[in-house]
Structures are given as structure tokens and as C-alpha cells.
Predict the structure.
Amino acid sequence: MEPRKNKKAQLIQEPVGQTLVITTLPMIFGILAMMAFNLVDTFFIGRLGTIQLAAISFTFPVIMIVSSLAMGLGVGASAVISRAIGQGDHDKVVRLTTDSLFLALVIVIVFITAGLILLEPIFRLIGVTADIMPYVKQYMNIWLPGMIFLVIPMVGNNAIRATGDTLTPSLIMIFAVTINAVLDPLLIFGIGFFPRLGLAGAAIATVTARALTMVLSLYILYHREKMIALCIPKITSLIASWKQILFIGIPAAATNMITPVAMGIITRIIAQFGAPAVAGAGVATRVEAFGHIVIMALYTALGPFVGQNWGANKFGRVQKAVRLSQRFGLLWGLGLTTLLMVFGNSIAALFNNDPKFIRVATDYFRILPVGYPLGSVLIISTGVLNVLHKPYHSAFLTVMRTLLLFVPLAYIGSKVIGIEGIFIAGAAAHIISGSAAYFWLKRIMNIESRKQGTNTGITI
């Protein structure tokens, strides 16, 4: 089917602050829904017992690797699509969108196959014991084949966001969490005529909800946006598209994967303190992610804004957007830190009543959030660097935070101080890497500013 309309850049005219607010607000609710997706699973699984909760906590790093792959491909697709929209090249928009979805399909098939073959060795490596392994396998044997329903719609939703429309992807995400929240208790506990499936029920609920989002996102891209072409492309055209997407997508995917890989190592370090400690830290990590929804919403909205304005050669608007976003990130991180320090104990008690579980989660909330303000600056800065075609700069900053700082400091801290030393290491990693990200991005933006014939810099 040939596209019948041209996509117009929607983010290059209105005031910068107003545009960022308008595009960020829908994403807050969309990302809130997706964070709730994980918390709903955790809430119901926590009612099954500490062992089941520990099992789902062990799966979190692996699930995050897959999610990071999808996000990386989505970042690459959104960056090149938004710039093509800013340039007014609709044929290129259609080609890049179609090719990015096909690329996602190819990659996800490889990951599913490898995951099913290596499932047990991977989880033994991160510390899953014999009593927990059956529960991990029960969940992942269903979740892994269903990852196609995670990756494809995530890339598709990023393509929709590249147009400047953040509302539609948010509504799709809200729809997904609603379906999951309804199916979770029915399938986990066997309510009514539904069988009691435990962790398998949670996995089935997740896969079903994700499958429906894939149908919706593809329908919108094809019928409403006219951004998918149902024709066989030339190999040269396909390769050209993949090169553009993967130039940003590979470092972005690798960057996003580094964090869950590091989390897997950290989980292995925490495992020496017992299953309740793993469960407590795992739940705290999910609550932490929930608290970062506003920053992630801004990060998501900022990418298309930077892409369209960069493509339209409106570099001054990019500078102002970065400056405003970094300031907001500092303030939001400070507020979140205060909130978790005050109410951390009460939040932990909502999920499980095991004393050791509550103590570990509370310690996490008391210590690690000190690094959130500069951690927010890091998130925003890495997203901007990707769209500015500096993906390797972005990747290095994430490597610095996780593998060069967090992991070695956590190991040392666990031996010298105990589990609290792991959380101190996390806070220190945020502070150091966030500071580096701020100054590095400021330097890059000033260099690009001079190339564009302007003299404004980035200041907080």
C-alpha cells in the first residue's frame, strides 16, 4: 500500500517549554502504566510467597535486557525517523519505519531461540538456587517466546512518537496494563472458572496484554499514519535503512542492556545475603523505576523534539530544551529522594511482611536515592547524545556508571560494610557519572553551537 499523506514536523514551531510539557504529560501516564504493569505483577506474586517473589526478582535483570534491546532499537528508529520528518522527507520516513520493524522481528527471533536454549545456565550464573529454579523456569518458558510482543510494539510506538504524537502510544500502554491487571489475579490464583496457574498465570497475562499492544501499534502505523509500506524493498535500500538505525540503535541497545547486566551482577552479590534480601532489593528496584516515570517521560519526549528540530536546523531550540530538561531533572530527583527516605519503610511493607525483606528494602530507599538528582541528569543527557548522533558518548557514560563504578564499588562495599555498602556504591555511581554527563554534554553542545553560528551555552 502506498502512503497517501506526508508527515509534517509538529515540534519545531511552538515555544520550547510549552512543547516539552505537552509532549511529556501523556508519556507520564503511559510510562506510569507500564511501571504499574511490573508493580501489579510484583504485588500479586508477592501474595504467593517469598520464594516466588525472589524468583520474579531473579527474572528482572533478564527481562530488562530484552526490554533494553527493544528500547535501543526504538531509540535508533525514533532518532532517524524524527530527523527525516524534520527534513520533510516522507518517503524516507516510510522506508525507515517499515525497515525498523522488520529489523526488530529478525533480532527478536534470534534472542528467543538463544534464551530458551540457555535459560537454566543463565539463571544459575546469577545465583538462582535449586529450590527457586522451577519457579523461574515456570515463568520464563512462557515469557521468552512472547517477547516478540514486547519488542515489535515498542519499536512501533517509538515510530509513532517520532511524529510528535505521544498521546497514542501512552493510551496503548494504559490499555496493556489494564488487560494485565485484570488477567493477573484470575490466572495466578484461579478465580472463578480460571485455573490456578501461579507464576505461569502471571506470564500468560503479560504475554496476552503485550500481544494486543502489538496489534494496535501496527494498525495505527499502517492505517492512520501511513508509515508502513507493504512492498518488498531492494536489498540496498534495506541495508541503507538498517545502517542508519543501527548506527544509533546498536550503541543505544548496548547501553540499555548494560544496566540490567550490571543489575544481574549486583543481584548475584546481594544473593549472598539470602532470598529475602534479593526480594527486598528487587522490589525496591521496581519502586525506584516507578519513581523515575516523569524523568523517563521527559527523556522519551525530548528525543523526537531534538530529532525534528535538528533535522530542521533549529539548533537553538535544542539547546534551550536540554537546559530546561536538566534543571527539571535535578529538582525531580531531589523530591523523589526525600519521598523515599521518609516513606520507604511503609512502601516496603505493602509488598511483603518478612522482617528481613522490609529491612533491606528500607535500607535501599534510605541510601541509594541520594544519587537520584544527578542520576536524572545522566538519563536526560544520554538520550540527547543519542539523537545528536553521539551514541558512543552515551554508551560510555552508562558503562562508567554501571561497570566501572557501581559493580566494583558494590563488591567492595558488600565485603567491607555489608548490604548497605552495595547501596552506597549505587548512590556514588549516580553522582559521579551524572556530573560527568552534565559537563560532557555541555562541551559537545557548545561545540555544535559554534558550528551553527550561535554563542549560547548550556547552563543549569
